[in-house]
Amino acid sequence: MELSSEDSFCLNVMLAAGVQAVRIDSNGMTVLGLTEKGEAKVALHPNCRPDQYLKLVKQSLAEHALDSPEGYPVYLRRWTRMGQLRDDNLSKLLLTGEEEAVVAVVHAPGLTNEIARRAWWIMPTLENARRMLEKEAVARGEMGKVLADFLVEHLPFEEDDLAIMDMVRTLLWFDLVSAAAEKKLWARGKQHGAYYIAFLEQRPDRLPNPLPARADYAATHALLAPFIEAGNPYAQQLDRLLSGPGQTFLAACEEAMQRPGTHEIVSALLNIYGAYLESISLVEGKARSMEEIIDRATTLASDEHHAPAALPQLKPDLIALLTLAGVNQWAAYTVLQRTTAVNALLRTKLKPVFEPIQEQMRVLRTAKF
To answer: pLDDT band at 368, cuts 50/70/90?
Structure first.
């Protein structure tokens, strides 16, 4: 069985004209080609069942693009989605009319801005936009803004927490959203905690809706100044938390704990605390209760090596600081391994973890002078 002579001729003419990408409209039985001047179109005239005829069309396209009359090897799906694809074949794959070939291109580590533009013309989906923005060449190219706008528009319909966190991380990392769009993303955190995670990870010191420094910041900063100038990391981190950005960070973390959502969100949130205080991090790769973490922080707060220990009036703040520096996902391990709860019920289960953390955060947000 072969293509009709008319279709074969028209397809050959279109391909010979130097198309950049090919898309097949199976419902309209049409082949579309992307050219430098716009789109070329070939209406098909099947001489057999539509599905059989489309297979013949794809075979013809693959033979032209890949010199393979058998078509694109879709059985390589898993391999190509893992990014195991030669970069010099990417543009050719976009001429096969096979959606799985487009997915392979999207996952390729050598994806360029131009190839991304062609792939997007063929298959503009949320997953493809997400994967293409993972490539720096695309994110920082002209397609970066196009794909980012698409993600922002369609994110409200995404239900997977990990996908939301990954997409917002990418948008913030490459600065792909406007100030207005950024505020909208942040506002969605009030309904879905996954949105907060990326902000707290990527921009902990420049979050939306900034708060002022703690009321006694001028006085505490004066006390800490000699230690800060000497390069003491404990004094530096305490001063950071008492400043405007630090107070904003603490308030945002407390807000995020009101909407834990899922286990993945909780783990990511708790890891943020230790990461924020990385220079004095006390996190460990094993489960510890909050009581253990606070007891250790209290002991360390009396150590002369911790500069603010020389300032007894700041000891509660130092204990709170060291407590947060010792928190990561392992603090909730005992709770999370015993429950599959989500949302409000999960928040109730996590009270033994969240309430002590919130108490220490309130210490850091309460003026002492």
So the answer is: confident
CB 359 within 8 A of CB 351: no
Q: Which two tokens stand for residue 179?
A: 């100030």
Mean pLDDT in the chain?
91
The residues, ordered by sequence, that sit 6+ positions from 139 with a Cβ below 8 Å of its Cβ are: 133, 147, 170, 174, 176
**Structure confidence by residue, pLDDT tens digits, 301-330:** 887 666 676 788 899 999 999 999 999 999
Rounded Cα distance, 330 and 288, in Å? 6
pTM over 0.70: yes
Contacts of 172 (CB under 8 A, 6+ apart): 182, 198, 199, 202, 203
Cβ neighbourhood burial of 259 (10 Å; 0-12, 13-18, 19+): buried
CA distance 147 to 219: 47
Q: What is the CA radius of gyration of the chain?
A: 28
Q: How far apart are the first and last CA of the chain?
A: 88
Phi-psi region of 343 (alpha: psi -120 to 50; beta: other; left: phi over 0): left
